[in-house]
Design a protein that fits this description.
Blueprint: E1 3-8, E2 11-16, H1 17-28, H2 39-43, H3 55-63, H4 66-70, H5 74-77, H6 83-87, H7 94-109, H8 112-120, H9 122-142, H10 154-157, H11 160-191, H12 200-209, H13 211-220, H14 222-225, H15 231-257, H16 271-296, H17 306-330, H18 334-354, H19 362-375
Antiparallel strand pairs: 1-2
Helix pairs in contact: 1-3, 1-7, 3-7, 7-8, 7-11, 8-9, 9-18, 11-18, 11-19, 13-19, 15-16, 16-17, 17-18
Bound molecules: iron/sulfur cluster (2 copies).
Length: 379
Amino acid sequence: MKTGEYGQAGKLVKVDLDVRDILMDYGAGGASLCFNCGNCTAICPPSENGAPFPRSIVRSVQLGSRSDILHSPEPWLCYFCNECSATCPRDAKPGNTMAAARKYQIRSATLAPVADLLVSKKWGVFLLLGVTALLYYAGLYYTGALKLPSRLLFQAFVPEEVMHIAGMVAGIFAVAVMGVAILRVLYWISRDRESRYSTLGAKISAVFRSIPLVFTEVVAQRRMSKCKTGRPRWIGHMMTMWGFIGLFVTSGLIYMLNPGLANYPYSFTNPIQILANVSAASLVIGMSILLMDRRTGRATLQDHNYLDWVFFYTIFAAGITGLVVEAFRFSGLLIPTFIAYSIHIINVLFLIAFAPFSKFAHVGIRPFVIWYSKYAGLL
Ligand code: SF4
Ligand code: SF4
C-alpha cells in the first residue's frame, strides 16, 4: 500500500495512493481536473450548509484521503442528478466522483474480497450468476423436479421447498451483508463527530425527531425532486421504487396467506395478482424512463461501468421476465411459461445475492445516513 501524510487546516491527513487508483477505476478520473472553484457546491440542489458537497469529496479524492472519503455522509446525500457536472468549468464531472465515492464506501463496508471480485472483474458477475443457476438446478435435481411439468402450476415447475430454501439462503446472505454494511457506514460517519447533545434524553429525543425526514425521503424522494433538471429521473426512480415495494409486499402476502403455494399462480383478477402485475409494470416503465434518461437526459454525463449496467439490466429483466411469465400463462403456453419462470427465478435470486455489492446497496444505506445526518444537525 502506498501511503504518505500531509498537513491541512491544522490536521495531519493520511494519504493512501491506492485509494485514488481504485476511485479512478470507479469513475472519479475527472477529479484530477478540478481547480477547486466551488461552483459545483453552489449549484448542487441537495447540498446544505452542514454537508456541503461535491467539492469537498472531489478534494478528498484528489488527495487520496481514505478516511475523509469513508467518514463522510455526503456521497449518500447526492442523487447523481449531474447539475454540478453540467456547470463545472473544468469538465471534471464531480457527479461521477460522488458516485465513485459511494462505490468505494460500498466496497469497504461489504466483504471487500467478494466486492473486489464482483466490482473489479467482469467475470465475477457471471460467476455469481452461474453459481446461482447451478444451485437452482441442483435444488430441482435433488427434489426430483428437474423435468418438464405437465400442469400450469408454479409448484409443479419448482417445488415449494426449493423456492423456500433458495429464497432464504439468498435473502439471509443479502440481509446479513447489507446489515453489516449499514452499521459500518454509520460507525465511520459518526466516529469523529462531536455530539451536539449533552444529555441522554436529548439524544433519544433527537433520534426520534430525525425519523420523519427519513420517511418523507423514502416515500416522496423529496431531496431528489429538488434536482429539477432531473425530473424524468425522479419519476423513473419513484416508479421503480414503488414497483419494488409492491412486489415485495405481494411476495410477503403470498407466503403468509398461502405458504404451500397451493393453486399458485392466482387468477388474473385476484387482488394480490393484480397488485403484483401492476407493480411489475411500474418497475419496467420506471426502468425504461431511467434508461431513456441515460441516453438523452442529464444522465448522459454519468460514467457507467459494466457493474452499473449489470445492476440496471438485472432489475429490468426481473420485471420483464415476470410480465412475460404472465403473458405466456395467459396464453396457456405451458413450456414457454416454464422456461420464462425459470429465468425469472434465477434472475431474482441473483439480484438478491448481488444487491449488497451493487448500486442497490443505496436502498439500505441511504435512509440510515439521512437519518444520522438529520440527527447530527447536518441537514
Ligand atoms: S469539480 Fe468543477 S465546479 Fe467543482 S470545484 Fe472542481 S472545478 Fe469547480
Ligand atoms: S450529482 Fe447532483 S446531487 Fe450529486 S453532487 Fe452533483 S449536483 Fe449535487
